[in-house]
Amino acid sequence: MDSISTQIFQQIINGLSLGSIYALIALGYTMVYGIIKLINFAHGDVMMVGAYSGWFAVTVLHLPFLPALLFSMISCALLGVLIERIAYKPLRNASRIAALITAIGVSLFLEYGGMIVVTAQVRTYPPVFPDTRYILGGVYFKYGDIVMLLTAVVLMALLHFTVQYTKVGKAMRAVSYDKDAALLMGINTNNIISFTFAIGSALAAAAGVLMGVYFNTIDPLMGIIPGLKAFVAAVLGGIGIIPGAMVGGLMLGLVESIVSGLGASTWRDAVAFLILILVLIIKPSGLFGKNVREKV
Amino acid sequence: MRRSKILVGIAVLMLGLVSGCGSTSAPKESAEIKIGGNLELSGGVATYGQSVLNSVNLAFDDQNKKGGVLGGKQLKFITADNKSEAGESTSAITKLITQDKVVAVLGAVTSSNTKAAVPVSADNKIPLITPTATNSEVTVNKDGSLNKWVFRSCFLDPFQGKVAANFVMNTLKLKKAAIFIDQKDDYSKGLAAEFKKVLEGAGGTITETAQYVGGDKDFKSTLTRIKASNPEIVFVPGYYNEVGLIIKQARELGIQVPFVGGDGWDSAKLPELAGPANLNGTYFVNHMWADDPATKPFVEAYKAKYNAEPDALAALGYDAAKMLIAAIEKAGSTDANKLRDALENTKDFSGVTGTITVDPATHNPVKSAVILQMVDGKKTLLTHVNP
User: ipTM score of the complex?
Assistant: First the structure.
């Protein structure tokens, strides 16, 4: 009996560490969707670029973890703004499907362009954290687990604070509510949208570095599956709603962990997408969403 | 749709013209022997094809410097890239045989690409040697009939599984094993099935059979489940990319039992991925060990020429090339039928991956395997296993 409860606790730890990565990526999806109603499919690949710039900072520039994390977040924030300015801004008044297809294009560009630059070979992160392991009542976790969870929670709290209590955050909410009205009130919507992309991409970069450090391997196509999973997490929590993305991400991580723990590891991805389908059927606005009737 | 059909039609016509032209020119006694290479030089497993290409060139250059074969004829290696795709493999071997008029073909590297090339070699009656295709259906069809023109220089998947199971039972003296396999990969499944059969036949038990999907990064949940089944060893017949992560995460979860696997582990990346200390207490079946006296001269020559450590694929490619050279000398000509018979009767050929005897009934080599132990990230030889 004791071994079963140990197993359950172990699976919860496993799930939370995976879930915090999903949550960080999901936040970027949700913010961009919230503000310009675009599903930014290139988001997972921005995470990949973040993982590589973190790798570059650690192995070539020999930076410790926190500066490397910052370096990666800043470079991806710039990349996010660049992508928005070049690829999405010219299409802001075009149909939504045009922007969506462009997003897929940007995604493929980053994946295969990345393959040319860094080659398709898998790279390994050098050990950034001490390899300390803790055992608590039969449950194993390592130093990296704690750092990962802490980093994710701190970043999410910071984001929540920015959106709710700063002037920029207020402007972001205003643009999200009604872009034209915000413009009339004297808000520079272009800058606010760029800012949103910058924050979202920086969070994705953080997720990328954490993933690289945690799993020890990075490759140019590493962003595809976590990107899709994070999208599921964002929809699960209610796309466009920031706390929803956090809860959705953590929940998805836990569900996957439990499914694998029950011996159905090959069904893990299927279950994740099944959740997406069920949410879309039963509560399309997500766990935290309100049903808003669209005006015609 | 129609346009592409017309294009294909034109291409076929042109091909006919080109090959027609080729055959009208008078065949003159040439001073060189052309050998084809149907290799994965680009695409998903391009590094495999490159390894084989390097080692075949090494073997041929070596032979040419010694005065060639059949009294002074030089060997010429003509390659065609199959882009790591089965369809391209068929066209690559067709080009080699019909246009380049090669007397034998080396390659392809993977089982599926080799299978795609087998019918072409049979139709044209040209011997084919694959260095590395380990699937049993490459030489013997599902209905039990032999592919007369196909040979190989490597051992098969079931053999590796058997060697691993015997090693666990007899050397490690452990009986309770968990198996963790890549559910989409025939290689992984083939090894696991034989491992299970042999282990259970000898009185062992399988505590848990878990699966992953190639490309996964997080194995902790499944490993937690494996841990709960209390195995004495874990058998992971996968490729190094996943195996490295699996072993690292298993050690992090406190699974300290030995891990055993197959030749898919053989990569310099494995210690990087898993961490050298985590690999202590892990073992895998392989084709060769680089510091073996029989292998060492090859390893040094390869390093001198290409400035890289040869992998098992390179060693097997070298043996395939040497096997072919020996067969040409034995046949005394490049006549396809004589060459085929000579290959079929290969006996006690001593290659860098062990002594090879071809079984005429299956065209599979009877050869030994090695079991390597990882010690602080370095491969060390534990034992030779004879079939």
Answer: 0.78
